[in-house]
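Crash report, auto-generated. Payload:
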Amino acid sequence: MEAVILLQWTFNTLLGLGLLWLASRALACPDLFRAIVLFVAFGLLLALAWVSLDAPDVALAEAAIGAGLTGALLLAALAGLRSSETNEKVAGQPAKEGPKVRPPQWLPVVVLLSVAAGLGYVVLSLPPDAVGLSAQVAASLETSGVSNPVTAVLLNFRSYDTLLEMVVLLLALLGVWSLGGTALRRETAPGPVLDTLVRLLVPVLILVASYLLWVGAHAPGGAFQSGSVLGAAGVLLLLTGWHLHAGLAALPLRLALVAGSATFLTMAVFTLLGEGKLLEYPSAQAGTLILILETAATVSIGVTLAALLLGSPPPNNKDHT
Amino acid sequence: MILIDYLSGALLIAGAVFFLAGTLGLLRFPDVYTRLHALTKADNVGLGLMVVGLAVQAESWTAAGKLLLIWLLVLLAGSSVAHLVAGGALQRGIQLWKR
Amino acid sequence: MNAVFLYALVGVGLFSLGLYALIVHAHLLRKILALNVMGNGAFLVLVALARRTGDAQPDAVPQAMVITGIVIAVSATALALTLMLKLTSETGRAELSDDQRE
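Recovered output after restart:
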């Protein structure tokens, strides 16, 4: 039907133009708070674009992590920036020295236009029909243990990449912790509305996370989306003044953080010793093994994302600083 | 079957009209409090109409129930956040608009 | 079908805008925002090109890579923001110095 195709074209064009407009406004806005809010709105529009491109798993991950958690991290950093910048201004600082040689003003614009033109030409010269790897994925999907192709790729065919990604998350958290982190400004006495909201939402979020984990085997969902919802629940708790119980802050927290990477590494060692091939599951137990890996990964991702926002390692009984 | 399509189309368009009204309020109203009022009220009704328009076409009662749950969660989160934003604005001393 | 190239060009545009903002702005928080926009542009190109399969299901491998990319982008952003906060608390300005002397 011509009308439907025209409507789709209009929607996609408006969405694309809206993405470009929001991004340019967010990058050019003089007020940093407004720029961050525009960036979060840009992330939500991008989630709509993922849905329009038939990528619902990516849309779920983008809405939770790309728009939500990145926005929270940026706003927390802005608050920390404002407090340390005003301190230094009071103490008196040397005037900003300009660089000795200034490049011409038009040079970045030339770089922008040439990069855009070159990349655009390359992208447009690609063939409009390309099956890519979807044939191989579809052929091996029955032996993979799940029926969602994205979950099969993430947890079975390319599980080595997911193993490395768990380690990257852990390394980022280690980097943030070893820099000493700056404490997040937390609400010490949340009002009744915030208190009730968090008490109502956190159980619902845990339920939704478990549902996403389970349904990821045959519908859009999976470990990353579920972990990000758990991370959001953790962020909500942290921002309203909840403190991790001191007994849980030392060993159980560390165990939860490494659970994902440790389970993946154990699985890798077992498959290497068993059949000699790295991370190749026996197809009868593939579904169960994937569920075990996903559960460990969800816990790790959720705790790591909440800890990244918190910034500093929670105090345990040993150091009395 | 075509009647169901027309019904859900009409409900979706009605929801979109409410969203348009809320956005117009966001752009044109004079201060934070009136903008919050327009935004949350109009958007909640608009989302409710859209949810009904989609639930009419849902393939099972479970799917319609999930859509209703989405609307309830947005209602909860939207109104709480509006309260918190208004409280924060009052704390910063933003005055109510008086004509 | 042609929505593929529309979104791929939008992704190229986002990448270029982010690169321009990365070069031009001095404030570190703006640079981090620009890096995120560049990353989102690259993801958009990947997922748009994965949609070229026609009427069949889209190619799942680039979508899985983009999900991985989103998670890694957020962890890199968190580390970059912590580095920026440390720099600001040491020097008082959220910009890198152009001095030759140090």
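Post-recovery validation: The mean pLDDT of chain B is 91.
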